[in-house]
Amino acid sequence: MLSPWLEHLIFSIVAIVAVAGSILVVTRRNPIYSALFLIVVFGTVSAMFMLLDAPFLGFMQLLVYGGAIMVLYLFVIMLINPRDGNLPKEGGAIENSFAGGVSLLIFSLLAFAISHSGEVERLSNAGGIPALPEVPLSHGGIAGFGLELFHNHLLVFELTSVLILVGIIGAVHLAMRRKSTALTSEEAAEGAVTADV
């Protein structure tokens, strides 16, 4: 069992790494680098689960998302074969400024909503955050996780699976279409060379 100050220190470090990794995920031009930073984010989320006394969820986060799902994403990215010359150009200063402004606006709205929520006001009037209640032994265990995932959130879980499947099919279709277009242009070039000879 960790002391409270050490637990808060570890959580702060993990949170800073998670925020930095998530920013790097969306700012990298190469999708392979984005996927690698996403693995870092999954690892930090796993560490947060473990700090919250949910080791099963932490290990499942590493095994399922950090392992299987990311291998699948990397496989699709490699299938598309993005090279620096084929990657689309990034937006200019106007597009980047607009995206930064929208992100800042959303963050400001969320911070305002959280700071003015009734729960925060109630806690500040009570003199601070009260002690957490005793966590039951089933917290973070297999039975509780299975009940939440396959009973209370089954529809969302299945919809997520369908979305991932649709994304993979779309990526494979785009990769095959691009390869067939490249083969057709190569055959046309070879035909032109043969006709010239």
How would you sum up this structure in a few lines?
The protein is an all-alpha fold. The chain has seven helices and no strands. The chain has helices at 4-27, 31-51, 55-80, 93-115, 118-125, 142-152, 154-196.
Question: Could you please describe the fold and organization of this structure?
Answer:
With 197 residues, this protein is an all-alpha fold. Among the domains are: 1-83, NADH-ubiquinone/plastoquinone oxidoreductase chain 6, subunit NuoJ (Four Helix Bundle (Hemerythrin (Met), subunit A)); 153-197. It contains 7 helices and no strands. It has helices at 4-27, 31-51, 55-80, 93-115, 118-125, 142-152, 154-196. α1 packs antiparallel against α2 and α2 runs antiparallel to α3 (55-80).
